[in-house]
Amino acid sequence: MSKVDISPVTTNSDMNEFIDLPWKIYPRESNWVPPLKKDVRRLLDPKRHPFWQFSERELLLARRDSQVIGRIAAIIDHNYDQYHGERMGAWGFFECMNDQQAADALFAAAEQWVKSKGMRFLRGPLNPSTNYEIGLLIEGYQYAPTIMMPWNHPYYLDLVQGCGFKKEKDLIALRISQEDMIGPRIQRLAQRITRSGKVWCRNGSKKNLQSEMSLIADIYKSAWAENWGFVPLTEDETREMARNLVPIMKEELTFFIYYGEDPAGVVMILPDVNPLLKRFNGKIGLTGALKYLMYRHEIRGLRGALLGVKKRYQKLGLPLVAFDHLFKLLKGNHNYDYIEFGWNLEDNDAINKFESEMGAKICKRYRIFRKSW
Question: pLDDT higher for 287 or 92?
Answer without folding.
Answer: 92
